[in-house]
Amino acid sequence: MAVAEAAVPMPAKRAKPPGAISRLIAHPSFRWGLLLFGLVAVCGLLADWLAPFDPLRNNFRTRFRPPDETFWFGTDRFGRDILSRTLHGIQVSLRIGLGVALLTALIGGLIGAVAGFWQRADGPLMRVMDALMAFPAVLLAIALAAALGPSELNVIVALSIAYVPRTARVMRAGVLVVREFPFVEGARAIGASPARVLLRHVLPNAMAPLVVQQTYVFALAVLAEAVLSFLGVGPPPPTPTLGGIIADGRDFIQEAPWISLTPGVVIALVVLGLNLMGDGLRDALDPRLRTAIR
Amino acid sequence: MLRYAAGRLLAALPVLAIVSLLSFGIVWIVPGDVAVEMAGPTATAEELARLRERLGLTRPWYEQLAGWYGALLRGDLGESILLRQGVAQAIVERLPVTLSLTFTALAIAFVCGTALGVLAAVRAGQAADRVAMGTALVGFSLPDFWLGLVFVYVFAVLLGWLPTGGYVPFSQDPAGWARSMLLPAAALALSQMGLFARMTRAAMLEVLRQDYVRTARAKGMPGWIVIGKHALRNALIPVVTVAGIAAGVLLGGAVVIESVFSLPGVGRLIVGAIQRRDYPVIQGGLLLTATIFVLVNLIVDLLYAALDPRIRHGRR
Amino acid sequence: MSLLSVRDLAVSFGGTRVLEDMSFDIAEGEVLGVVGESGSGKSMTALAIMGLLPMGGSAAGRIRFEDRDLLALPEREMQRLRGERLAMIFQEPMASLNPVFTVGEQIAEVLRRHRGMDRRSAHREAISLLKLVEIAAAERRVDEYPHQLSGGMRQRAMIAIALACRPKLLIADEPTTALDATVQAGILDLLRGLRRELGMAVLLITHDLGVVSDICERVVVMYAGRVAETGAADAIFARPSHPYTQALLAAIPRLDGPIGALPAIGGVVPAPADFPQGCRFAPRCPHALPACEVGPPALRTTVSGTDAACIRVQEVA
User: Fold this and answer.
1) Which residue would you say has higher pLDDT here, B73 or A265?
2) pTM for this one?
3) Which fold has domain C26-49+80-216?
């Protein structure tokens, strides 16, 4: 059998063709995206060291301070430093965004691969995905997060359920293309088991679109987490969240617009960075995808 | 054409069946006792028992489900615990607000987005292209509810041009309706505008390479007709298919934008219901928005066929 | 006086010249064939006349049509000429028709633009144009979409669009290449009949010498962006002078000729960036001398009365 297997020409086992990394770095969108995202992410990760104040401590003497040299981005109605709260909020956003991107990749990737590979499972699985897609993702996530109860993990689960159909669709489309390639036929012909064909030959080659899609899902999850926190169904207080800070400033938009301003800009930077990276990845990993996804 | 329409409708039915099942099933994932959650920790045992009775929680799950589907077929979505009103009625009362907001935003996003995309495609590689695509990218990177707050601050608080919120029915005062819709719809539209712009640009670049565009020029058609008629009509075909998806995203966005602008729509009803654990309203609201989404996509499918004669005739 | 007179036409993309020193005339009602392999610059000649060069292309020289210099004409004026006095049909009839409009709409559009017709009369005229190009059941076909027509019918519809305003000059770029042999003959018959009926001149671009011998009065043979030989069709077919023309003619299988190996031309047409300094055919020419590589040969009159760009034309012919 080993001889026969060697005779079937196999393409690169890894999803990335050679030179993908260098093409990626050379891509201006990816570079700028990485820079933006990286900058904000590092600030978030180092929040414990960078934050000038305790993000949770109330101080009634410093209520509603506009931005000045002590409080760079002002304070809220409890006198809490907006900068410190925002830095800690970034951490939460990134944890949730990454969690959603990974969880949907796992579940959506599995569903999409199974649906694309076994025709019998395709119909039922994709009907359920269609039905999930019929709910506006944000609304579904709000309802699920509320029903599951407030916790960071539940927010990740709720958002993952809401965004899993997109990932499944992308994965399915990729598998449908790859399964027709001659080397897959070859592997089948020499008697490899379906599971082996799927895991060893189909999945690695259908990975590129998934990677691109998950970058966008990361961005969508960061945006959606902000909505959930804004509406009060995100991670429970006192955890500072970007959406939560915007909500704090909402009733004082006339008197203290700075409260809502800063976290919104930070969300935009993170999401913009991720979207730019997604565009770069899309171009570098597979130019044919240019218009196919997102 | 009729057969095509009937086919699309038939394909939507199983999706709707699963959608209603999922809407109902949301109570099943509530950890612990739904009644306790709804009534709060201060409720007496007697109150809890009454609530369970009203929600039908005392019956086995299959009876609950059968009851839900039976009521659905009669157009009954159950009763709101807190509003002391039928869920269907509560939603229908607020539906015009949500639909005006969603479809105004969709119109803004579609018109501005395709215009931006056409401009970018015609000037591909030039400065105008980069500016248009940069705008699109920033557009769908901004959180819409935050953008709504920024708009309120700039246009209502600082400049005083438009109201900070509130809703004026169209039938009462069309100008006032437009003023009340402009800011929330614009905030909501921006993200999907970026999406439309990117789709349109890609589709236009593809179409502008086609031979029939050269034919139109060989016929002596002026540039704006070549682009605006011959090219755009073809480029819109793939763009229109995303309009259905965009409508869904906007419907979801409307939920939070309504809260920002104090618009008395379905979104605020649902958000309120979520905060107060009014499950019948949550179930009904989820079912209704998903049904609207499925219907909009049916319309989009028909529009798609209207735009592309090859689909109408069952080719491709 | 000639209807169209092209002098020293050159087309370049960026720094690369794909066509140069192109000169020819078409008289009113005349059919001129432009022959060459793909990449010889024949399509670029047509597009330059129409002012429809692809992005990045620019034309130099003079193209006089009636009494206007087309290269100096502003785009607005060109738009008035195109589809009105100057019309063009293309190689791929499917791709050349817009899939989302009916055939009738696409014909009527020309009439509405150039003739100022209203919707009704344009529609009526579209039907009679479809009859003119011999499409059966024109009343029904006029409201059909391109995908509902066969390949031959699509090309007929394209011709109907081109002829809507009875142009003085019709440029046909490989009009039959994408069609089946039997359909080809029908389209050529139609073109021949129409040009007699309407008295228009035709610039027929093709790589198919059979098509040229069928309907052309005069021929321009092109090679690698330059004219190789030009003259009356009869003279060229009877006694080709340029080695390239000779090779081209020898490559046609003849029914009355001997059956055997076809004398193929060795090598391929060079890409524009690799055009040789001297005679561009020299690297493939069996008669080439070192002198051929000095510079591009000028056209000189041959014994058969054609003009050929070959320094050895007296000996070779």
Assistant:
1) A265
2) 0.84
3) Rossmann fold (3.40.50)
